[in-house]
Amino acid sequence: MASAISSKRPWALLCLILACAFTPSAFAEGVYLSQDQFLAESFDGEPPPAQLMWLTGPLREQVSDILGHAPRAARVRYWSDAQRSAWVLEEIGKEQPITMGFVVDNGELHATRVLIYRESRGWEIRHDFFTRQFERLRLTEQHRLSGPVDNISGATLSVSAARRMARVALLLDRHRPHS
After folding, report:
1. Around 43, how many Cα atoms within 13 Å sit in the side-chain half-sphere?
2. Cβ-proximal residues to 120 (8 Å cutoff; 6+ apart), any chain
3. Which of 7, 61, 81, 131 has the most Cβ atoms closer than 10 angstroms to its Cβ?
4. What is the mean pLDDT of residues 153-161?
């Protein structure tokens, strides 16, 4: 009897490890790209120095309208050269912030990347099939995206957060000094 119990322990331990490894919380946070990697790929390996944009007055109100709440920061860091800008933004999906990077080139989205995903569900937005939908989108005068971004079943709140951040990146690009 005792030998039958002790022979089951390795299997029980293996089952416990596998159960823990494949629970949704095991996939909860993923760092897919560092900010430095994102900037390097956005500016051919040589990102320009960071600049700051203060969110004050009408700009803060417009950002609040897009997000549906006041922005958490008083200023936003960005990187830009003559025509291109890169923005690293965070927005809550359901419960946790999602960190995304956006590259805006001549007023339209050139690249969209998920840098860090912390939610337990909806991580599918990190895939290229989703982020490619943002390419070439612009901001309309009503502060909407110029084209559709399809939803992902089970990732509705993450998709919504990604859309809001894209709109904010395009809005902020309009307000940056263009040299």
Report:
1. 20
2. 24, 25, 27, 28
3. 131
4. 95
